[in-house]
């Protein structure tokens, strides 16, 4: 069953005069998915109001400390998807009705509150509620699980579990698991002339990562390992925006223990700083390194944009070619090399990536210098996904993951996934 996908929103608007530079070559336009871009929060945010139920009329008892990973709000507003500390409350006389306090601390001062109805642990609902987050364009932001939206539109639990089990939220062993794409956002007061073209009557599905609520006594193992320091030289986006700073700087990098995907944490940090945008807003970049001789970077938000082109996304040339079913020249492949000294390097050759303009649909070579190439060098992660030639994978079960390392039960046609069968890891687009 096809999921409901979200509309896209422009984030930061900059004049893009550099697109007239001869270094930027217009490429053949591809039928590509739009990049995720990031909304902006208004400077003043109001206290959250639970609109689905009169939750504040309940008597709440603290159960103690818990953990939370944001999904939809983080994807929409550029917040963290790391585990954060929260306090868990339960409604008196209603076992399984939880109030989670302290969510989204990097979006709202003091965090925020979300109410989760897990009175049926096999069919957990997040009912329509105001998050307290005020969008700069469309006003108050509401959140709900897709299952709750469907129930309010006449779907039964049985029908949802039969047709859309992959977006069902569950509670098991004191951990509430929120699948990728299971949470929706709505802006009920969006104006008719919304620059995001938001329909206040619609819900928009967000979530490129799995969210969780870890209740007291629950255990959750985050597949993303500890971040380590890395050295980066960035000449990918910088020259495109007139920035010629090629000095090395420090970022952090993580590796997913299930898929082997690398995550560069705020790789555009120096560019953001030089442009006066504040380094804390720079998004992360996920890289599929299952083939170290040809790394794949699916289309992802840069957080930057132009007045005509809208928001800009970045992708590797190898991804562009993969979507268009064509081979990538060796000279344009991003590679991962073991340096033999305890470090590894991701190298970005000249013109190994594209910038995609959301509004105009234009596709441009990223302006990587030919004489100063981008790279990231970091301590080599020990091999959780090394492939041994003598292992027979033919009878091993097949698992699918998205690039955030979240397991996918039923991959959809056109979805870019990582397939793992035993020790063999491959990338593919589901047909």
Detailed description of the structure:
- The protein is mainly beta and 431 residues long.
- 8% of the residues lie in helices and 32% in strands.
- The protein contains 5 helices and 26 strands.
- The strands form 5 sheets. The protein has a 7-stranded antiparallel sheet, with no helix packed on it. A 7-stranded antiparallel sheet has the order 15-14-13-12-22-19-18, with no helix packed on it. Strands 5-6-9-10 form a 4-stranded antiparallel sheet.
- Strand 13 and strand 14 form a beta hairpin.
- It is globular.
- It starts with 59 loop residues before the first strand and ends with a strand.
- 46% of the residues are buried.
- The model is unreliable at 1-36 and 384-391 (pLDDT under 50).
Main β sheet profile: 7 strands, antiparallel
- The dominant shape is globular
Instruction: Give the % helix.
Output: under 10%
Ends distance = 15 Å
Count the E strands: 26
Rg over alpha carbons: 22 Å
What would a concise description of this structure say?
This protein is mainly beta. The chain has five helices and 26 strands.
List the helices and strands and how they pair.
Blueprint: E1 60-69, H1 72-77, E2 84-91, E3 97-103, E4 112-117, E5 129-135, E6 139-145, H2 146-152, H3 157-163, E7 170-172, E8 175-178, E9 183-186, E10 204-206, E11 211-214, E12 228-233, E13 249-255, E14 262-265, H4 269-274, E15 285-287, E16 300-306, E17 310-316, H5 317-323, E18 335-338, E19 343-348, E20 353-357, E21 363-365, E22 374-379, E23 398-401, E24 407-408, E25 416-421, E26 424-429
Antiparallel strand pairs: 1-2, 1-11, 2-3, 3-4, 5-6, 6-9, 7-8, 8-11, 9-10, 12-13, 12-22, 13-14, 14-15, 16-17, 17-20, 18-19, 19-22, 20-21, 23-24, 23-25, 25-26
């Amino acid at each position: 069953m096809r999921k409901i996908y979200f509309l896209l929103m422009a984030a930061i608007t900059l004049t893009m005069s550099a697109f007239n530079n001869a270094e930027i070559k217009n490429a053949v336009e591809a039928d590509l998915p739009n990049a995720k871009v990031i909304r902006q929060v208004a400077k003043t945010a109001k206290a959250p109001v639970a609109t689905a139920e009169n939750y504040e009329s309940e008597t709440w008892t603290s159960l103690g400390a818990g953990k939370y990973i944001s999904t939809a709000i983080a994807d929409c507003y550029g917040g963290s998807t790391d585990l954060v500390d929260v306090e868990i409350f339960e409604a008196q006389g209603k076992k399984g009705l939880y109030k989670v306090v302290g969510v989204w601390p990097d979006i709202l001062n003091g965090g925020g509150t979300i109410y989760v109805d897990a009175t049926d642990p096999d069919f957990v609902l997040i009912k329509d509620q105001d998050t307290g987050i005020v969008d700069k364009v469309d006003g108050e932001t509401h959140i709900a699980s897709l299952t709750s939206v469907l129930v309010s539109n006449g779907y039964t639990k049985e029908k949802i579990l039969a047709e859309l089990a992959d977006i069902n939220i569950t509670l098991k062993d004191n951990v509430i698991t929120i699948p990728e794409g299971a949470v929706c956002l709505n802006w009920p007061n969006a104006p008719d002339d919304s620059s995001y073209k938001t329909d206040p009557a619609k819900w928009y599905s967000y979530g490129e990562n799995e969210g969780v609520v870890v209740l007291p006594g629950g255990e959750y193992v985050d597949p993303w390992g500890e971040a380590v320091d890395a050295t980066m030289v960035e000449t990918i986006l910088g020259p495109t925006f007139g920035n010629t700073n090629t000095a090395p700087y420090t970022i952090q990098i993580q590796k997913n223990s299930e898929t082997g995907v690398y995550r560069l944490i705020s790789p555009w940090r120096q560019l953001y700083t030089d442009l006066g945008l504040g380094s804390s807003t720079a998004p992360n970049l996920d890289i599929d390194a299952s083939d170290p001789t040809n790394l794949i970077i699916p289309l992802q938000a840069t957080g930057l944009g132009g007045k005509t082109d809208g928001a800009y996304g970045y992708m590797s040339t190898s991804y562009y070619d993969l979507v268009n079913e064509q081979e990538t020249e060796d000279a344009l492949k991003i590679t991962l090399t073991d340096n033999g000294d305890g470090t590894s390097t991701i190298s970005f050759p000249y013109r190994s990536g594209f910038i995609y303009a959301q509004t105009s649909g234009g596709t441009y070579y990223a302006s990587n210098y030919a004489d100063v190439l981008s790279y990231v060098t970091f301590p080599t992660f020990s091999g959780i996904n090394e492939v041994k030639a003598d292992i027979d994978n033919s009878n091993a079960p097949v698992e699918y993951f998205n690039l955030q390392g979240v397991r996918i039960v039923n991959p959809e046609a056109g979805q870019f996934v990582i397939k793992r069968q035993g020790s063999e890891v491959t990338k593919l687009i589901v047909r």
